[in-house]
Amino acid sequence: MENRKPYNIFDMAQQQFDRIADLLGLDQPTRDFLRIPMREYQFSLPVFMDDGEARVFRGYVVQYNDVLGPTKGGVRFHPQETIDTIRALGMWMTWKCAVTNLPLGGSSSGVVCDPHTLSFAEQERICRGFVRRVAHLTGPTWDVLGPDVMTGPQHMLWMLDEYEAIHQQKSPGFITGKPVGHAGSKGRQEACGYGVMITVREALKDLGLAIDQTSASFQGFGMVGMYAAQLYQQMGGVIACVSTWDHADRTAYAYRKKGGIDFEELASITNPFGEVDKARAEALGYERLPGEAWLAQDVDILVPAALEHQIHAGNVGQISRRVKIIAEGANGPTDSDVDEVLRERGVMIIPDILANAGGVVCSYFEQVQSNMNYFWSKDEVLSKLDSHMTSAYIDVSTYANRHRLSLRDAAYILAVDRVARACHERGWV
User: Fold this and answer.
1) Is this model's pTM higher than 0.90 or not?
2) CATH code of the domain occupying 38-184
3) CB neighbour list of residue 248: distance below 8 Å, 6 or more residues apart
4) In the CATH scheme, what architecture does the domain 190-355 have?
5) Which of 17, 57, 23, 7 has the alpha carbon at shortest distance from 37?
6) Which residue intervals of 213-254 are DSSP H helices?
7) CB 351 within 8 A of CB 19
8) Where in the chain are the domains?
9) Which tens digits make up the pLDDT trace of 270-301?
10) Where does the Glutamate/phenylalanine/leucine/valine/L-tryptophan dehydrogenase C-terminal domain lie (predicted)?
11) Quick one: what percent of the chain has pLDDT higher than 90?
C-alpha cells in the first residue's frame, strides 16, 4: 500500500478546492484564506530510547480552519509523515466537519516514527514528549486531538495524562479515542468503519440494489477497514477480498477465500496493526495474492480504507466493469485525474469527506460526553451515528441529484460554501 509515484498530497487537496472555488465563484481573498492553513507548527522531539540513547523525531501540528468551532483532528505516527500530508488532512477534516454539520473546524498532527520498531515504553515517551510540545497550542475548547494511523486508545490516554499533569486540571475533552474506562465513548472504535457502510447502504438504496445481493473488496484491515467489513457482513454482504500491509515483508498481500471471507475468522488472525498472519491464513484455506489484487476483484463495491493515492491513472484500468460503488474509507485514496474516468463508467464514488466522517462524528460525541461528564450506551452512540451519517448522505445525494453533480462535487460544494459563508459572516475575509 505504498505510493506508486512521487506526488504531493496537499497539491491534490488544493486542486480539489480550486475546482470547487471556481464552481462557487469565490472571491480571491476567500480563496487565498481557505487554500492554506490558518496556523501550523513544526518541532523537533528528542526522546530517550530504551538503550539510553537520545533520538530526535519530527512533529507537526496544523490547525487548518476554526471558523465553525474548535479544530478537530487525528494524531498519526507514520515513518513517511510529512507536513504536506498533515496540511492535506487538516483541510479535508475542515470540509468533513462542515459537510456533516458538526460545530468543529479541521486540524491534523503527527510524528515521524514507526511504532512497529518502538517498544511500548518508547511509544509512551513519544506521546508524552509530543504533548509537552503542543499542550499550550491545543485544548478542549481550541484544538481537540484524537487517534489516526498507528495510534489508538492507549496513546490517547498517555497524551491526556500528560496534558492534565501540565495544566493541573482534569480535561477529558482535550482528546478523543480514549479507552472507555477513561472517559472514552462506547462505539468509537467501530464508528469510522460503520460510517463508511452506512453511506454504502444509503447509496445502494439510491441505485435500487439490495445489500445482501452484493460483494465487496477491501483495502486495509485496520480500524476503518475491519469495522466496515464487519458491518457489511452483518448487513448481508459478501466480503470477497481483503488486502493488508505486512510489515515483516514490507509488502501488501490480498486474501480471498472460496465462498467469501468470514469476518470473525479473518479478524482472529489479524494483529493490532491490521496485518494478517500469512501462515495461519493459508492454513485456513485463504488464497494469498499480490496486494493490489483487491482492486481487480469482480465485485460490486470497492472500499479503499488504507492510505492516500491508491487508485490512480496507472491502475484504474484494473477495476472490474461490475464495480458500482467506491466508498473512500481512507483519506484521498482516489486521484482527482481518474474521477471522470470512473464517472463515465457509471461508478459512484462516495467521497472521503463523507464516507469516512463517522470517526469525527463519534469523536464529537465523545467530546460532548467528556465535557458533560455524562456518558451514553453503545446502542445510543451507534444510533446517533447512524442518524447523523444518514442525514449527511441524504443532504449530499439530494444536492447532487438536484444539480446533476457527482457526490464528490456536491459534498465539497456544501462543505466549502458553509465554511466560506461563516468566514464572511465573522468578517474574516
Assistant:
1) yes
2) 3.40.50.10860
3) none
4) 3-Layer(aba) Sandwich (3.40)
5) 17
6) 223-234
7) no
8) 38-184, 190-355
9) 998 899 999 999 999 999 999 999 999 999 99
10) 185-427
11) 93
